[in-house]
Structure prediction request, 412 residues.
Amino acid sequence: MTALNAFTHLECSMTGARVDAGRAHNLSPKGWPLLARYDLEALKRTADRDAIAARNRLTHPGFWKWRELLPVADDDHVTSLGEVDTPLIETPHSAHQLGLAGQLLVKDEGRLPTGSFKARGLALAVSMARRFGVTSMAMPTNGNAGAALAAYGARAGMQTWSFCPADTPEVNVHEIAAQGGHVFRVNGLIHQCGALVGALKEEMGWFDVSTLKEPYRIEGKKTMGIELACQLGWTLPDAIFYPTGGGTGLIGMWKAFDEMEALGWIGSERPKMFAVQAEGCAPIVRAFEAGEEHAPEWLDAATLAAGIRVPKAIGDFLILRAVRASGGAALAVSEDDIERVRALCGIVDGLLLCPEGAAAMAAIAEARRRGLVEADARCVVFNCGSGLKYPLPERVRDLDRTKPVTRAMLEG
Ligand SMILES: *Cc1c(COP(=O)(O)O)cnc(C)c1O
Prediction:
């Protein structure tokens, strides 16, 4: 898997202070997320985007093909479970219903190992943790991150510990355990689970891999932006609708766009970034509307879309800056909208979204109503996990085969 490794150092996302990357890190000395930096000048001379994109899928599966823009230097640390490039799927009938005449593309991240895009981030976090000799990792999780942590951790021979809010989807909790993770249901929300990890990590010897408290998950998530540009012939769409919890993916893609521009892979155009949340947990939307840089904790957070039920995001200012710089917006959608769009896309376009993906798609209608995207815009929605991981509405009827079954009964 040899590739020029251009990773140079970490940088505090708030102060810009440089931090040596030679050991495992959580937050910066001032308590903010750390971002990985690369020698883009050196890479620009050698990194040919098309040659990299054409790499052998067996030796460089999925996002691992972008090794030049990833922090893992040593092949022996690469932890892989058969990653794939996730497809961009057109959903023309849903687009029409949502008031969009332009192309609507769903990037279906449910095709990744463990059925969600958390695989991108945790593959990188686990691979880097290996480099630093970490043997035990812990995190609070609404389910998908814990599943990816457990799977990649098992692959790397590490112990993993996941703490889930009690109403995390059943399949997620069991999936974590089935992939070798220690998992606990906690009677609280994700930030309260995070507080447990913080309080116990020293005694337990854990490395904390909470969202944005660890610098490399975002490097995995940024590959969504590179892959998207590559799939669109090194262009970007007019708008991206992203279901936003901790915001890693949105921040990561925004970072990837800048890195690709510095390499001459894309131009200076950017999509409008829409951070989509549920009305029952919309701290970023509230801060966006108030013109604030930070988003205070949302109380009594509630939504079926568990992955975006994040009452307080440590990277709030990075999400808000990207959304504002892009000319996009933070939008909230109702639970009814989420259910309606999940049903719509499944029925008219044959694509079962997860509730978070349905929330992102539902926001297109709101963006159109407010005139934030043109009718003929090309929009990309991120469906971040497999729709099969969530409880589905009961729409099945029973049939008694011992009595006459008539056409009227079937069609009635
Ligand atoms: C984690 C998650 C999100 C939110 O992702 P962030 O990048 O942390 O904002 C959205 N949808 C699903 C299905 C998730 O698992």
In short: Residues 116, 118, 144-145, 211, 243-249, 307-308, 354, 356, 384-385 surround pyridoxal-5'-phosphate (CB under 6 Å). The CA atoms of residues 286 and 295 lie 7 Å apart. The chain has a mean pLDDT of 96. Residues 190-204 form the longest helix (15 residues).
